[in-house]
Specification:
It contains seven helices and two strands, in the order ααββααααα. By secondary structure, the protein is mainly alpha-helical.
Length: 165
């Protein structure tokens, strides 16, 4: 799920990250830790561009599992700190964190009648994880009533925000 107006900035970011990866390869540490048994099955994949992080760390670190010097993903704390600064700068007095943004996003989609299965998939949940609480059941009824695509809502929101900026 990516709003159309974010495609160009993301492409520019990926070009910079690919250049960084190529430099890392030249310097001898342009690989990442692969999940599960993929590293054994595809030994060269760890150094391929397709397996690199979209938001890599600015530093090279030693992987404690293998002892190899590699670039890991950006630390979660950086995003959390940036969000806290943005909330403070905006003058928002309520507590806000990454998890509350995730829930707010899901709630807004459900309120607008989006498909519950799509929302679950976006959040990485399986259908078995749905709570049986009354609020969730009410949202489920609303969502199943309209069944609109989440992508339409995201594009509308980002397009209208860009137009007013």
């Amino acid at each position: 799920m990516l709003p159309i107006n974010l495609a160009k900035p993301l492409r520019r970011h990926l070009v910079r990250i690919k250049e960084q990866h190529e430099q890392d390869l030249e310097d001898g540490f342009g690989s990442v830790h692969l999940p599960f048994a993929l590293g054994r099955k595809f030994p060269k994949a760890a150094g391929e561009w397709a397996w690199q992080y979209v938001f890599p760390s600015s530093r090279i670190s030693v992987d404690p599992r293998t002892g190899k010097r590699q670039r890991h993903h950006m630390a979660e704390g950086l995003l959390q700190s940036a969000l806290k600064r943005a909330v403070d700068a905006a003058g928002i007095v309520k507590r806000a964190n990454c998890h509350s943004l995730r829930h707010s996003f899901a709630t807004q989609l459900l309120r607008r009648g989006y498909d519950i299965r799509t929302v679950q998939e976006l959040l990485g949940h399986s259908p078995r994880e749905i709570t049986t609480g009354v609020k969730v059941l009410l949202r489920l009824r609303l969502a199943l009533f309209k069944r609109r695509s989440v992508l339409c809502w995201a594009d509308q929101r980002f397009t209208s925000a860009a137009a007013t900026a």
